[in-house]
Design a protein that fits this description.
This protein has 293 residues and is mostly helical. It has 13 helices and five strands. Helices cover 57% and strands 6% of the residues. The longest helix has 28 residues. It binds zinc ion (ZN). Zinc ion binds next to helix 3 and helix 4.
């Protein structure tokens, strides 16, 4: 197995911990082979918890976390690194809203599923902290994965589907997506052709959703990302996007290839306004979660 060389003692320990998980070991080995660099630095100014830079092949981690927490964050970013290795996922900011939303959600649901599987494997080996981290951020996927391991059903499918039941995560990434669109606005205006990356659910799922053996774990549901529950947005998010695109069109004359007309919009019981009993549950969860990507 290729070893990643670093002088950073914290990172060495984090990788040592991660190597106790079969899935973590496999992801780390693939990233090292493919030439990824793993760097710990002060991420305060970047305002991210951790990150994976697709073109530069760099995984960025904070420099002030203890090794157990670092191992957890590394597991999530390694999942993103693998997605990028498996094929182009640069459709994240396509000039086609449906493609963007499907890509962003599919990548996160897969990465959260993988960090949940790794957290369960590490817990089995006596390392509880990655599990606690996963519980704070993505309890829906973690519990679904854990149950599925016990039931001997497919933990990848369970974790992936459970991600979409989390109003917190779905809203969080929709906001990230909208922020990225406005941050990249100038680039999109300068070279609109570079952002014409229409993708189908089938093509995204086939390149992103792969298990440890490289097998697509959603082979039976390749259309999953086109289904309303998976691609649908809240009416509030639809308003934000409509305002952004109307403004862009007025100022720069740029139209979307496809806007939200082909996406389900939840008017009632929407993702931002769950029924009262769910709302209280959600509020208590939000308090325990931190910003991360
Ligand atoms: Zn992520």
């Amino acid at each position: 197995m290729p070893q990643y060389k670093t002088d950073d003692k914290n990172l060495q320990k984090a990788m040592w911990i991660l190597n106790h998980s079969k899935t973590g070991r496999s992801l780390l080995s693939k990233a090292v082979k493919s030439g990824y660099q793993i760097i710990c630095e002060d991420l305060t100014a970047k305002n991210i918890g951790a990150g994976c830079h697709p073109r530069k092949k760099i995984i960025l981690l904070p420099d002030n976390n203890k090794p157990e927490v670092l191992a957890f964050k590394l597991s999530h970013e390694l999942a993103h690194a693998e997605q990028i290795m498996k094929g182009t996922v640069f459709s994240y900011v396509a000039n086609d809203t449906k493609t963007s939303i499907m890509t962003s959600r599919c990548m996160e649901a897969d990465a959260v599923t993988k960090h949940s599987i790794i957290a369960c494997e590490l817990k089995d080996k006596g390392y509880n902290e990655p599990y606690e981290e996963a519980k704070a951020i993505s309890p829906e996927s973690l519990y679904a994965v854990e149950k599925s391991i016990k039931d001997k059903s497919n933990p990848y499918v369970a974790g992936f589907k459970a991600w979409f039941t989390s109003s917190f995560l779905v809203n969080f990434y929709d906001k990230q997506h909208a922020a990225l669109l406005s941050r990249l606005s100038e680039e999109i205006i300068a070279q609109p052709d570079a952002f014409k990356r229409k993708r189908s659910s089938k093509s995204l799922v086939k390149s992103i959703c792969r298990d440890n053996n490289g097998k697509c774990y959603l082979q039976d549901s390749l259309d999953i990302m086109e289904r309303p529950l998976y691609v649908g947005i809240s009416s509030r998010h639809a308003q934000i996007l409509n305002a952004f695109f109307a403004n862009r069109e007025e100022e720069h004359g740029i139209k979307c290839d496809q806007h939200i007309e082909n996406i389900a919009v939840f008017e009632n019981h929407d993702r931002e306004n769950p029924p009262a009993k769910e709302k209280n549950k959600l509020i208590s969860k939000l308090k325990t979660r931190r910003d991360y990507r």
